Amino acid sequence: MNIEILKRPSNSAAKVSLEAGQSVTAEGGSMIAMSGDMSLETKISKNEGGAKGFLKGMARMLGGEGIFMNYFTAGPQGGDVFLATTLPGDMAVLELDGTTSIKVQKSSFVAHGPDVNMNIKWEGFKNVFSGENMIWLEMTGKGKVVINAFGMIYPVQVDGEYIVDTGNIAAFEESLDFKISKAGGSWVSSFLGGEGLVCRFKGKGTVWCQTHADQTFGQSLTPFLIPRKED
User: In CATH, what is the architecture of 2-219?
Assistant: First the structure.
């Protein structure tokens, strides 16, 4: 499997090239185009059926993802599938080596290889007060994971402590611990300054940040939205 990120960083798309019989799992609705002999299956879970698979799909939906996933498999000649997301921005390919895991923000997952497992990770009530989701997508196994960002995406190598706004986190390595705290020296300065709450990461590992926050963007547009008139 080869993954090429095109048109970075403002309008990125992922070109996933598969050999014969290879497959890739993608978020529902992310496909732009694909080879003519590429097969597509839409299921709640590839390896688990019945009640267990349904519960896994429901848990994924609570994490901000769709209940169904798309499974693309190349034909005898191999093929390509092009993937993109709703909001314009950057994409990145992360590599799992089988020994570590990566936690991905609800809106940042695009696709993963066949030997990567996606599980729902509950981070407890420390996320409640951040205004973000309490559930993360945990990627384990070995292979490639495609993530996206609203705006540009860039990695930060943390060795000690690092602070990131709660809405600007795309993904981070499991070696990092984090807690939610105020941005400034006091609660008053944190909120009056417009920063509010932040994530304080500790440990050694990588955080992938996005330059824009989708919730903040949505809030900035709200005053200009005109209510639809009923016919």
Answer: 4-Layer Sandwich (3.60)
Spatial contact of 129 and 187, defined as CB atoms under 8 Å apart: no
- Specify the 3-state DSSP secondary structure of 42: strand
> Do residues 147 and 110 make contact, with C-beta atoms less than 8 angstroms apart?
yes
Predicted confidence (pLDDT) per residue in 126-182, tens digit: 554 444 455 788 999 999 999 999 999 999 999 999 999 888 999 999 999 988 876
Q: Hey, CA dihedral for 80, 81, 82, 83, is it positive or negative?
A: negative
29: left (phi over 0), alpha (psi -120 to 50) or beta: left
d(CA 86, CA 167): 17
Contact by Cβ (8 Å): 91, 8: yes
